[in-house]
Amino acid sequence: MKYLFQFLGICILGVFLFSCSTYTYKNSKEKPVVISNDSLEYEVVIFDIGFTLYLNTIARPMGYYSLNYLENRNNIYVTIWNSRVLNPSKFKPSIYQNIIDYNPQIRYGLEVNYKLFNYFQFAQQKYKIRLDGGLGPPSKIR
Known about the structure:
With 142 residues, the protein is mainly alpha-helical. It has one domain (6-126). It is 40% helix and 7% strand. The protein has helices at residues 6-19, 51-57, 67-85, 110-126, and strands spanning 33-37, 42-46. A two-stranded antiparallel sheet has the order 1-2. Strand 1 and strand 2 (42-46) form a beta hairpin.
C-alpha cells in the first residue's frame, strides 16, 4: 500500500510524453505535485504540466469543500476513470493508463482528497473529458 496512488504519476507522465514529445519535464520550471500521507505509507507524484499552476490559481482553497464531499466525488471519479482504463478501445489509452486503487473505506485525509479531486477537475479541463458520467464537453470549472 506504500505506493497506493503511484499509478497517477506514471499515467500523467505517459500523457505528458505523448502530448509534448519535443518538450521535457526537466526543462520546465514547474515542480511536480506530491500527494502523500506518511501514516498510510504512500506517495503520488503528478507530472502534468499546468497542474501546479491550476492548483495555486484556479482551484478553490483547501477547506472550501468538505472532506465528505471530496471523498464522494473522488469515489465517483475513480470509478469512471477505472472503467475507462479497462476499455482502451473506447477511451484514449494515452490518458487512461492505470487503475486507481482508491478505497472509500480508507480515510486518506483532506489534503490527499483535495489534491486528487483537483487533479480530476484539471484533467477534465485540459483533456476535454468528463468524469461525472455525462456526455459532451465538461462544464466550465471554477
